[in-house]
Structure formats: C-alpha cells, structure tokens
Design brief:
160 residues, mainly alpha, 55% helix, elongated
C-alpha cells in the first residue's frame, strides 16, 4: 500500500490556489472546497489561508486618466480647499473609483503644486539647536526664565 505524500494542508492549499484562479470569492471558495474535497473551513479561515498564500484580491486601481479628470473636477468645482484625504474619500464614494492615497497625493502635487504639500508624519516639531550662536543662546535663556511654577498667594500675605 502506497502512502500519499501530500498532507491535508498541502491539498487544501492547492485547492485554494485552483479555486482562486477561477475567480471565485472567499465564500464560494470555502463552500466549493468543502463540497468537492471534503475539507470544511470557515470563511474567515479561508481568508487567512488566502492571505498567507498571497492570494489577496485588493482590486485594480482605476485608470490614471479617469482619476486625474475626477480630481480636477473636485478641485475646480469647489471654492473651498479640500485636503488629499477628503479628495480620496470623494473619489471612492461619489465617483466609485479605486485609488490609493499615494496616487492622490502625487496627482495633487502635479495639478495643484502651489497648495499641495506632503502630509506630515509628526505634528509636533521640536526645535533643535545645532550650533551655539547668540540667537539660540538668547532663545534658550528666555525659555528658561519663564516661570512655569505657579506662585500661590495666601490671604495672610495679602492682608498684611
């Protein structure tokens, strides 16, 4: 009697790959593998295994011409300035386009270069004094002279 060299998990992964190539969604894949191969897994487990195998369907980004046209329409139709996140959400919700945020940032930096800036990763910027010149020394002394400890005046001190 010859032993089957493939484990159950190997057969499951092969079945996942073949069903994914057919264009089925996750629910269909889970049901089909359960019926045809007798390997019953939940939809969430099927999704996890598809992610491990790199078979994630994130969709294809819309064409660049369509995205540029829609961004121009958003920018020039509104009087108020919208940030890239608001434009990105508008493209997704109102226009039904699949766009990455980085693509929106790049297009905005080309179309509207005067107002577009790269998003900051940190909101708080600290001053870094690299050289000890007179201006930096004065700023530092003024900063240190600020009395940050509150002075409490009691009633006895004000009465007398």
């Amino acid at each position: 009697m010859m032993m089957n060299s493939k484990t159950l998990m190997d057969r499951y992964h092969e079945a996942l790959k073949s069903h994914y190539k057919k264009g089925m969604n996750t629910k269909e894949i889970a049901a089909s593998i359960g019926v045809t191969h007798g390997i019953w897994r939940s939809v969430r487990t099927t999704q996890r295994h598809l992610n491990k195998l790199g078979l994630v369907n994130k969709g294809v980004e819309s064409s660049l011409d369509t995205i540029i046209f829609a961004i121009k329409e958003i920018i020039y139709s509104s009087d108020e300035y919208q940030g890239y996140v608001a434009i990105w959400k508008t493209l997704r919700k109102e226009f039904g386009l699949l766009v990455r945020r980085k693509t929106v940032i790049d297009i905005l930096s080309i179309i509207d270069a005067g107002r577009a800036t790269r998003p900051r990763r940190t909101r708080i910027k600290r001053r870094v004094h690299r050289e000890a010149n007179e201006e930096n020394q004065l700023q530092l002394q003024n900063y240190l002279e600020i009395d940050t400890v509150p002075i409490w005046v009691t009633e006895k001190e004000t009465a007398g």
